[in-house]
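User: Just a sanity check before I run the rest of the batch. Below are the structure tokens for the first item. I only need the designed sequence back.
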């Protein structure tokens, strides 16, 4: 499979589902903790990495938010974003749409301006120095109240020109999309696009609600869509993208094996599904790793891989002209 793996690595790509707080490798986390005088409960980076064995989504989220505790200053957010961008360059990512969780930081007293300032400054540097274009997505934490979300939305106003869309993440259980309908309505009034995590560990009804109530133009994960044939038809007809994260799904035991992943069935049934890495530092796989994992397990052809890559660019929030330019690069690379 080496030839196919090399083909995957050589393709220019877009990534649409990446949580910047999920890109803190253990070594960087320890560096930031030492710099900021924070004591972690793990004695070494290796021991922390060994703790990344999650039984479910909530187990992961617990350590994810604990890891965010090392982020205190604008430079910290710059550093984790720059570290991701270097990985993105290694994975031949030409465009990325980065999600960030301001509530995980402002709740600890970190100013909103420090959070977005560091992330945005690194993304601009990444564009200028590495040639990686970007969009920024503010994600609301669904385990917090909609009222708290409104406060965060207000804090975002001075930086509105930096943010393309708002999203909804964290555990779905007991937190259906309808709890946030008014919040998303306000965000839409302000001019933001919307996305939402739905159907990761939640039912197809959550995907319907994200579409109907939150007006999501993309669904993050969306695995359970395949359980509802009417929903599959709607996703295909209206070309509503699903940002799939295969290794994340496997590590969180949302699937039993990579061979069980619904990605190929989604592709075959006309859904604009694409491949992403989610929280790669925690799940042990960046974008190329995710492509290789599903290509091997699902016996994907080169044409199917190219289709998935094109889906990512087509589902992005860039202009039509930018999409055409990127898709031309994909076509050129896929001919070799």
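Assistant: Here's the designed sequence for the first item:
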């Amino acid at each position: 499979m080496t030839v196919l793996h090399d083909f995957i690595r050589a393709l220019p790509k877009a990534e649409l589902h990446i949580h910047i707080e999920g890109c803190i490798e253990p070594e960087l986390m320890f560096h930031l903790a030492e710099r900021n005088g924070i004591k972690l409960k793990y004695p070494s980076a290796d021991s922390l990495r060994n703790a990344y064995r999650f039984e479910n989504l909530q187990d992961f989220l617990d350590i994810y938010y604990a890891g965010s505790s090392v982020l205190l200053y604008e430079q910290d957010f710059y550093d984790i974003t720059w570290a991701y961008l270097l990985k993105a360059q290694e994975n031949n990512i030409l465009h990325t749409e980065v999600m960030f969780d301001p509530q995980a930081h402002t709740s600890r007293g970190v100013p909103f301006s420090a959070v977005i300032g560091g992330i945005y400054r690194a993304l601009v540097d990444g564009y200028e120095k590495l040639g990686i274009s970007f969009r920024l997505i503010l994600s609301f934490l669904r385990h917090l109240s909609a009222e708290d979300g409104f406060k965060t939305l207000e804090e975002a106003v001075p930086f509105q020109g930096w943010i393309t869309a708002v999203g909804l993440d964290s555990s779905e259980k007991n937190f259906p999309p309808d709890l946030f309908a008014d919040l998303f309505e306000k965000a839409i009034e302000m001019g933001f696009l919307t996305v939402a995590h739905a159907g990761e560990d939640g039912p197809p009804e959550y995907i319907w609600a994200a579409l109907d109530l939150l007006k999501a133009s993309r669904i993050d994960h969306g695995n359970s869509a395949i359980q509802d044939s009417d929903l599959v038809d709607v996703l295909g007809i209206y070309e509503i993208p699903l940002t799939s994260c295969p290794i994340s799904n496997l590590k969180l035991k949302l699937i039993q094996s990579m061979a069980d992943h619904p990605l190929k069935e989604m592709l075959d049934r006309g859904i604009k599904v694409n491949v992403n890495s989610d929280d790669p530092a925690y799940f042990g796989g960046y974008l190329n790793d995710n492509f290789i994992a599903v290509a091997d397990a699902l016996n994907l052809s080169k044409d199917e891989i190219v289709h998935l890559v094109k889906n990512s660019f087509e589902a992005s929030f860039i202009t039509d002209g930018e999409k055409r330019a990127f898709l031309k690069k994909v076509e050129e690379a896929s001919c070799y």
